[in-house]
Write a structure and sequence with these properties.
There is one protein chain. Residues 1-9 have low confidence and may be disordered. The strands form 2 sheets. A 4-stranded antiparallel β-sheet has the order 3-4-6-5. It has a two-stranded antiparallel sheet with strand order 1-2. The longest helix is centred in the middle third of the chain and has 23 residues, at 152-174. The protein contains 12 helices and 6 strands. The chain is an alpha+beta fold and 293 residues long. Bound molecules: flavin-adenine dinucleotide.
Length: 293
Amino acid sequence: MTTRLSQSANPEPVREKSGIPKNPGRRDLGLRATLVFPDRDIVDRFYVPIIYTACRTCYSEQDPDLIFRRAVDGDFESQKMQKLISSVIESVHGSTIEHVVFTFAISGVSRTLSHQLVRHRAGVAFDQQSQRYVKFKGAATMLPHSIAEGDPDLRERYQEQVDGALGLYGDMLGAGIPGEDARFVFPNATRTNLVMTTNLRALIHMSGLRLCTMAQWEIRRLFQLIRHEIFTVSPFLGSFLAPKCVPLGYCDEFNNRDGHCPIRPHKDRVLEAWAEKATAAKAAGRALPVANA
Ligand SMILES: Cc1cc2nc3c(=O)[nH]c(=O)nc-3n(C[C@H](O)[C@H](O)[C@H](O)COP(=O)(O)OP(=O)(O)OC[C@H]3O[C@@H](n4cnc5c(N)ncnc54)[C@H](O)[C@@H]3O)c2cc1C
């Protein structure tokens, strides 16, 4: 992607055509994310109490098992528990939210997506459909909307290429070539299934990166579905799943220096605003407070 800032006296950023694919909006991409564990009852009954116990233990003389029992028995107001949990999460005291996990069944995503997803290492486990052991009789593929809605000739050639690859795969299996070798011909568009279990800290981190408008459209959609699933079991916990700029208060993405994504101001603008404020304060004979080293 090429983004350039104007060099003229007017430093307004000039926006060139973005290379970032458009958000597919509400189009059905044929991918699914289902929260298979826990259900709403378990989250209501235990998840907030577990996190609250982890937080309170840090600041309390009480035994953690007593705190937990009292939390489950409703001795503490739910709002009070949520307030402490929110402030601890906002302070990035992250270990407290590693005590609860969520398991998702993810299906129909492309290998392009799964390759990105499994790059996350900390606090997350994956199991993925094997292309060695599964003999795909009708491998399904993902059609990006830019191709679906673009030049019909290119779309036809894309489809021929994908169909050709899958046809060759079938022929190779038929000729006795093992699946683990025949799969070399599969395109990135090939759909796949995974099970993902993640603790809440990792889920918030992944969502911060993948709900960002700079993320690739398919993985962004996946995390929109994941966020929806968490909201159905806990609007409170779901509220922490947001693009990373939301808790940060600014955007740190290099490719958004032109500010085309308006969710939060880019950090360059924040620093510029701070510099202007400092200059104005100096001119008025005041100095803005600076942190002592
Ligand atoms: C928009 C976008 C574009 C990307 N483009 C590319 C690309 O072009 N090429 C490419 O290769 N990748 C790319 N990635 C992948 C990216 O570099 C990360 O590998 C991926 O997002 C996993 O995130 P993470 O490193 O935070 O890992 P996670 O496993 O989610 O780790 C969570 C956090 O734990 C800490 N942590 C984890 N492991 C370690 C460790 N070994 N040492 C120290 N701290 C650790 C870090 O603080 C890390 O942020 C892209 C990701 C995004 C979101």
